[in-house]
Amino acid sequence: MPEIVASVIVTAGWVGVIVQLVAYALLSTGRLPAGSVSYQGLNVFGAIAVGASSASSGAWPSAVANGIWIAIGVVAIVALKRHLVTRRLRAAARTAQQLRGQHVARARRAARRSVVSPAQPGTTAETGPLTAEPGPVTAALADRPLHPGSTRPAGRPEHTGRRRRRTREKVAA
Question: Which UniProt keywords apply (predicted)?
Answer without folding.
Answer: Membrane, Transmembrane, Transmembrane helix
